[in-house]
Amino acid sequence: MAKKKFYVIWKGHKTGVFTSWNVCKKHIVDFKGAQYKSFISKDEAEKAIKGKYEDYVGKDTKKIKLSKEELEKIGKPIYPSLSVDAACSGNPGKMEYRGVDSQSKKQLFIQGPFEKGTNNIGEFLALVHGLGYLKNKNSNLPIYSDSRIAISWVKKGQCRTNLPITQENKQLFDFVKRAENWLKNNIYSTKILKWETKAWGEIPADFGRK
């Protein structure tokens, strides 16, 4: 389940603190010079709206504050490694995914946008693409995803989406079928790891759109 976020708009068609990305998007779309950012707590968001946008530009506002003991228990990310993520505008909507070097954030592959997709499908495809990418390079690097659903789908070898196939997303489902066939016909030893967003911030492959 996605973590609840709070969206601050300093400049837009409407300003304030909002609890929905879709609502936030309506207030910033087509607004030249819109200023907005997401936060993981209501207190931080309400504090931010009273301040200046410039004070938060470039800062990671998505880390949950954990105790020293909790951070030690979680540990640190493994480098070098591959990180994958997906972004979807709407549900369903235009979806794309990519893979990056976890440390440098250098983009290694990207696909999309696909019409009428979902974030879960994108996360699934990103993981399978990453597995194939690493296997082709004979690499033993681990791969990170922040989606428990996608990780479980990959381990089961099937994209268990309920999204219906339509003429608009036929190309996307062709990719899904290819991914499922790859999992069926390939053996891999790559470690698939969960990116601990609450300790490390957004996954390096994040598209940074909200």
UniProtKB/TrEMBL annotation:
Its EC number is 3.1.26.4. Its cofactor is Mn(2+); Mg(2+). One of its GO terms (molecular function) is metal ion binding. Mg(2+) 1 binds at D85, D206. Binds 2 metal ions per subunit. Manganese or magnesium. It catalyses: Endonucleolytic cleavage to 5'-phosphomonoester. Mg(2+) 2 binds at E123, D146. This is Ribonuclease H.
